[in-house]
Amino acid sequence: MKNNEKNTAIGIDLGDELSQISYCRRNEMKVITYSYEKDGEDFEIPTVACYNAEDGRWYYGREAVEISGEKGIPLIGNLLKRAIEGGKNYYNGTESIDSVKLLGMFILYCLSVPHELSVYDTASIVITVNEVTSELPQVLDRALYRIKEEVDSVHYMGHAESFFYYAMSQPIELWQRGVLLFDYKKKSFKRERLLINSHYSPATVRTEEKSFDEMIPFREDDEERYDNIFREIVENEFVSNSASAVYLTGQMFRGRWADKTFRFLCSKSRVFVGQNLYTKGACFAASDLAGWTRLGSRYIFMDETRLKSSISVRAMDGGKELVIPLVSAGLSWYDVNASAEFMLSSDRRMELVICGDEETGERNALIRCDWIPERPDRASRILLHLTCPAEDKLKVEITDLGFGEIFCPTTLTKEEIVNLED
Fold first, then answer.
1. pTM of the shown model
2. N or C: which terminus of the chain carries fewer CB neighbours within 10 A?
C-alpha cells in the first residue's frame, strides 16, 4: 500500500519503566491513547518481557507481569537501557537474546495492543523518549528494521519536542501567550517553558528546562511542605512571564497534595492535568510528518539535536555558478540522509557551503576527489550522499559513477568527515 493511501499515524512514548501508545486516523484527526480501561485513563504498558519455557513464548507488558507472578518467571526490565548498553539478556537458565532484538519485539507488541491498529495501514510512527542520546537512533533503527520495511516515515524525538507538538496542536488561545509544563516523576521534577520566536519565517520554537531537586524525593507524610515549595516555584514563574496554558504530567501529580498551588495556577492560566501528553504529542508529530497538517511548515522546533546550519553544494551549470541546497537547518542530525548526483570539474574538487546563523555566518568545506581518475571537464559523474554520525559531524560519501560508456565507473567510494561547528 502506498504511503498516501495509509490512514493511521502512531505515537509511542517509550520509557524504561512504562510505555504508552496513541494513534489517529487521517480523516478524523482525533488522537486516542490506548487505555486498558474503556473510556478510562489506564494507559501504562510496563516495559518488561519474560520467556515462558512451558509454551516457548515471549510475553510483554502486562501479560509478562501476570505470567511472571503466576509462574515465578524472572522479568527482564529496562529494555531501552539494555538495548543502548548492548549485550545479551539471559533467560531460561543459559539461553540468551540480543537486547536490541528484544526491544524491537516489545515495540511490535505495543503496536499490537490496540487491536484496531495495523502496521500495513500506518503512514507514520514517532517514538518519543525522555532524551535522544547519540546512541539511540542507531539502536532504534536496528530494533525497528522490520517495521521500517512497512512504514515509510519512522522518527524519534525527545519529550521536549513531543511537548512542542502537543502544545502547538491546540487552539491558539492555549499557546499564544506561552506554555508551561511541569513533569513530576519519582526521581525528577522539571519545568519546561515553550518559547516562540516569530521574527523568523517559519517561526522557531524551543523549550527552556529547569529542574528542582528540592521536590525530590516526595514524601506523602509531608504533603503541605511540598505544596508550599511548588507554590513558590510557580509564583516565580509568573513574576515576569505569562502562560496561556499550564500542563501537569507525571505520576506524582495523581494525588491531591498540591491544592494551594492548583488554586493559584487556575487564577493565572488554563490548567490541564494528564498522564499521556508525550504519547499524544508524538502522535501529533506523526500526523504532521505524514503530511496531514502544516505545523512543521509554520514552526521549526530547535533543540540540541537540531542542525544549526544548512548545507549546500556549489556547482557550475552552463558557466553559471549555482548553490544547490541539500540539508536544511532545523533538521535533527539523525534524520539527515541526502543524496544527489553532480558532474565533477577537471580539478576534481567539490565545495560544500555550510551556512549558519548571523553569529557563525557562512563557510566553505573543500572536498578533494583526487582518487577519481583524471578525465576531461565535466566528464565525471559522482553520487554525493550526506549523513550525520553525530550532532556536530557530517559524513560525506562520494561514489564515482563514471560517464556513460565513454568513461566506465570505477564504483570507488570514499568517505570524509566534516566538522559542522568549526
1. 0.89
2. C
